[in-house]
Amino acid sequence: MNEMSSEEGYFTADGRKIGGVLMEMKNITLRFGGVKAITDISFDIREGEIRAIIGPNGAGKSSMLNVISGFYIPQEGEVWYKGAPRPQMKPYEVAQQGIARTFQNIALFEGMTVLDNVMTGRLNHMKTGLFAQALWKGKAEAEEVANREVAEKVIDFLEIQHIRKTPVARLPYGLKKRVELARALAVQPSLLLLDEPMAGMNVEEKEDMSRFILDVNDEFGTTIALIEHDMGVVMDLSDRVVVMDYGKKIGDGTPDEVRNNQDVIDAYLGVAHD
Amino acid sequence: MLYREAGDYKTSYVDDGQSFPIKFDRIGFYAVLLVAFAVIPFLINSYWVNAIFLPFLIYAIAAIGLNILVGYAGQVSLGTGGFMAVGAYACYKFMTGIDIWIDGVQYALPPINIFFSVILAGFVTAFVGVLFGLPSLRIKGFYLAVATLAAQFFLVWLFNKWEWAYNYSASGQINAPERGVFGIPVTGPATEAWATYLFCLVFVVILAFIARNLTRGSVGRKWMAIRDMDIAAEIIGVNPLRAKLTAFAVSSFYVGIAGALFFSVYLGAVEVGEAFGIQKSFLVLFMVIIGGLGSIFGSFAGAAFLVLLPVLLKNVLVGGLGWPTDLAAHLEFMIVGALIVTFLILEPHGLAQLWRVIKEKLRLWPFPH
User: Is there a smaller number of Cβ atoms within 10 Å at the N or the C end of chain A?
Assistant: First the structure.
C-alpha cells in the first residue's frame, strides 16, 4: 500500500500512471428504514484507474453505485468529487457532472435505434434551444453533426457500425450490453460506472467486453468503477479492489492483496458469523 | 424497382440525417407539396373544402400535437378537446380585441391580424398546457390520463361560465367576424374555398416541418428517452420535469392552433361543450393511435383515415348504392368501428408501421431472397 499513500498517485503493475483522487466516499452510511445497506464505508477512486467493487450477494455493491450516481442519498457521510464535497443532487445533475453508468439489467431506450441511443449520451453536450431546433438549418444541424461525429467514433470503437440503424428491441443480449456501454461512452464521462457489465454473458462475450473495458481505459484514459461477480475478470481487469460484505468494507487494495486477505477469504468461502 | 436505397450512398451526416433519405420519397414529397399548393386550390369547391380538406388539415395539426405528447414523450392526455377550446377562445379574443378593466379604467388591445391571432392562441394554449402538465412529474400512465381529464372538464366549464371569454354574447357562443390576410377573407361568412384551404395548409406545412425538426434532434431524443425508460433518461442527464413540460408546451401549442383554426376558419361559430367536448379528445387520440404513435406521417394518416372514411362511406352507400340517408348514417358508425378494430388487430402500431413494413418488403422486391 505504500505507493498509494502519495497524493500524486501511483504506478500500476503494467506501468500505467494513476493520478490523484477523483472521487472519495467518506464514511458513507445508507439505511432503508431499519436496514443498514451500507455501514460507514470510505474509499477513493483515482483518476485513470479501474476500480472494482466486489462482494457476495446483498453486500451493498449496487447500493454503493446508486449512492455515487445520486439515486440514493446516504444518511451519513459525504461524497467528494473533483476535490470538493458534492451537495445533494438529482441523478440528472450527477450525470451532467460527467458521471455515466450502465445498469445490471440493461436500461436502453427500446423504441429507438442504436444510433439514437448512443446520441442520447450526447444530450448534455447539446445546448441549442427549442426555437433554433424548430428551424433546424444552421445551429441545430451543425450541433447535431458535431455530436454525431463523436457518437460515430464510439460506435466505431465498439464495433457496432452494422447495427447503427437497427431498433434496440431487435438486438440480442450481448449486443445490447455493448450498446449500453456505447451510450455511456458517448457522454465522454470523467467517471464511468459499470454495474455487472458481464452478467449473463458467455466466455467469448466476456472476453470481448473485458477487452473493450481495458481499451476504453487505455485509449480515453477514462476512470472506471465496476461491480462484477466473475472473480477471474475482476482480478485481471482492476487496479484496486474494494471488498464489501453485509454493507461493510472488509478489504481494499490491489487484487493480490485482496486475494490474500483473510476476511475476504472468509466472506467468500464462508465461516460461521458470530 | 424505382423504390430502393441500394446505391444511394450518403457521404455526409447532413445527408444521412435528412427527412427523406430515399430519393423516391423525396420526389414524392415535393410532388405532394406542389399538388397541394398549386393544383388543389384551383379544383376545389366549398363542399370539398368543408367536408374533407379543412377537417383533414386541422385534425392533422391536432394529431401531430397529441402525437408529440403521447407518441414521442409517452404522456397520455385526454385533455385535447379542452386545449382546443383554449386555442379557439384565445383566438376569438385576439381577433376581436382584448379589453381589460382595472380599477374602472379600460385597457384595450386592438384586434390582431387573424394569422397572428392563431399563433398567439397557440402560445396561450402552450402556457395552459404546461400548467396542466405539472402533475405529470408525479403521475404516470392511466392515472395521468385521468388527471388530464380534469383539464378537459374544467376548461369546457370555464368557457361556459366565463362571460368575458365570449364577449358577453347572449347565446354564450363565439362567432368569428370577417377577417382576412392580404385583403382576402379567411374567416366569416364570405370566404372563398381556396383561401381557407390555403390558409390552413400553410399552417399544416410549417407546423409539420417544425415537428419533424424537433423530433429528430436533441429535444426529440429527450422526449423519447423519457417515454422509453425514465430512470435511464435521468441517468443520462435528462431533466425529467423540463422534458415533460416542453412536451406539454409544444403539444398544446399545436392543439391550440388546431382549435383556433377549427373555430375561426372551419366552423365560424362555436358552442364550447358541443365543439370541444370529451368526444373531441377521444377522436384525436384515436387518430394518433390508428395512425401510429411516434410518427408525423402517422398523424396525417390517422387524421385522413378518420376524416375521409365517413365521407367515403356516405358517398358509396348513399350516392353509389342508393340507400336511405338515415340507414347509411347508422351503418357508417358500425363500419368505421369495425374497421378500426380490424386495423388495430392487423397492425397494433398503426398505419405508419404498416407503411414501414411495406417499405421493408419493397426494399427486396421482386426478389425477396
Answer: C
Q: Is the Cβ pair A144, B232 closer than 8 Å?
A: no
Residues B136 and B29 in one domain: no
| CATH classification (class only), A1-98+189-274 | alpha beta
- Residues B140 and B182 grouped into a single domain: yes
Q: Tell me the helix, strand and coil percentages in chain A, rounded to 5.
A: 40, 25, 35
A205 touches chain B (CB under 8 A): no
Residue closest to B305 by CA, chosen among B260, B235, B254, B352: B352
Nearest CA to A15 among A48, A44, A63? A48
Is residue B70 located within the same domain as residue B5? no
Residue type present at position B35: V
Structural domain harbouring B5: 1-34
State the DSSP code for A167. B
Q: Which residues of chain B lie closer than 8 angstroms to A124, CB-CB?
A: 236-237
Domain ranges in chain A? 1-98+189-274, 109-188
B227-B233-B234 Cα angle (round to 5): 130
How far is the C-alpha of B294 from the C-alpha of B274, rounded, in Å?
A: 29
Which residues on B lie below 8 Å from A92 (Cβ)?
Answer: 234-235, 237-240
3-state SS string over A210-267?
Answer: HHHHHHHHHHHCCEEEEECCCHHHHHHHCCEEEEEECCEEEEEECHHHHHCCHHHHHH
Same-domain pairing of B18 and B110: no
* ipTM for the assembly: 0.86
> DSSP code of B341?
H
Interface of A with B in 228-267 (CB under 8 A): none
Residues in A touching B229 (Cβ below 8 Å): 107-110
Do residue B18 and residue B132 come from a single domain?
Answer: no
Is the Cβ of B11 closer than 8 Å to some Cβ of chain A? no
What is the pLDDT tens value at each position of chain B, 369 positions in all? 566 666 677 778 887 777 787 777 888 888 898 988 888 888 888 888 888 899 999 999 999 999 999 989 989 899 999 999 999 999 998 888 887 777 777 777 888 888 999 999 999 999 999 999 888 888 888 888 888 998 999 999 999 888 787 877 878 788 878 887 888 888 877 788 888 899 999 999 999 999 999 998 889 999 999 999 988 898 898 999 999 999 999 999 999 999 999 998 898 888 888 889 899 999 999 899 888 888 899 999 999 988 988 888 888 888 788 888 888 888 888 888 888 788 778 887 888 888 888 887 877 777 766
